[in-house]
Amino acid sequence: MTTTAETTNAFLERVGAQDAEGLGELFAEKIDWNVPGTPALPWVGRRSRRSEVPDYFRTLWAGLEPGKSAVSVEAVITDGEEAVVFAVFDHVAAPTGRPFRTDVAMRLTVTEGKIVRMHLYEDTAAVAAAFAA
To answer: Residue limits of the SnoaL-like domain (predicted)?
Structure first.
């Protein structure tokens, strides 16, 4: 059986590789997914099925300038089925060319080697400002 730490590390590696399909494979069929933010951004909101995961990442990445993103993972803490990732995201919004930085906390819950919950906590105001016309 895959551990929470192994699944979390695979998640982070696939995010870094921009492997949308591979990311989808890490999730259970039914999920509790929440990325809060302004409804003007097409990737924010709740999702409940594994099939929605690859499209989320493709949509997000399409909104960012290629080659101008950095993710600095500062800590990963696991406890049983729970993992928390602390990171800093640096991106450039493709529509506006504005750079932005946001501190991130991400909660992952892993059951039987599959991610069943992903909640992202970030500076949604900074993200919205970077994409505002």
So the answer is: 10-118
